[in-house]
């Protein structure tokens, strides 16, 4: 039997935020066994804790959707770091995408993204994107649709109103057309600026088994690339944003995005949030 813990991440309120399964003692598990356990939990992500390759680091981790392994994800990083530290500390996680340092202070964990967002050329046209979200084209803001990669990859579309954001629903056959136009990327992050340095978003990724995600740390990190591309960041400086996600799902989540820029280029991206333990138990080894 393996010990596991369930945390709600990007919240300090139980039964909100994004649920996460943390499985301990995973050194001897095969990839197939981890995938089976992740499919059993059927949460957006499950993280497995292993002995680090470098003893100077806190842990080696592997992260799984219900359908596949992923190289990096934000809410597992935040939840796992808080679980391992549970106090003010510096945690370093060995993830497939690279080393992820996490600073924990007063119950809030902040990670530095392992990769700077990289723009991808393949993007759908606005009409197809709108149709994929079940919206008329007029519900999209005039800013360009973005496609950014940094481990995972996401499509970014700014909407015109909160009402439009609330009406988003994945719709076929346009959604398949979006995936085809973007080279296979099916994760869509729809967002809207709601005030000075405030953003509300929704993230959909059906191929990963995630109809909608209550809080997506990796999409928040890569949003830095979109914001820079559409002129939402100063050429040089540090800018912080407060983000809300999961509102429409009844699982409101709070995330903080901080971006360092220099001469128009992104130098570093950090994402912060809290987490609260919900359950602990044991699970059979497949």
What is the 3D shape? globular
Mean pLDDT: 95
List the helices and strands in order.
Answer: EEHEEEHEEEEHEEHHEEEHEEEE
Terminal CA distance: 10 Å
Helix content: 10-25%
Q: Report the portion of residues in β strands.
A: 35-45%
The name of the CATH architecture of the largest domain is: Roll
How many domains? The number is 2
What CATH first level of the largest domain would be assigned? Alpha Beta
Poorly predicted spans: none
Report the CATH topology name of the largest domain. Diaminopimelate Epimerase, Chain A, domain 1
Kindly summarize this structure in a few lines.
With 286 residues, this protein is an alpha+beta fold. The chain contains 6 helices and 18 strands. Helix 2 packs across helix 6 and helix 3 packs across helix 5.
Explain the overall architecture.
This protein is of the alpha+beta class and 286 residues long. It folds into two domains: 2-110 and 274-283, Diaminopimelate Epimerase, Chain A, domain 1 (Roll), CATH 3.10.310.10; 118-272, Diaminopimelate Epimerase, Chain A, domain 1 (Roll). The protein is built from six helices and 18 strands. The chain has an 18-stranded mixed beta sheet that branches. Strand 3 (46-50) and strand 4 (59-64) form a beta hairpin. The model has no long low-confidence stretch (mean pLDDT 95).
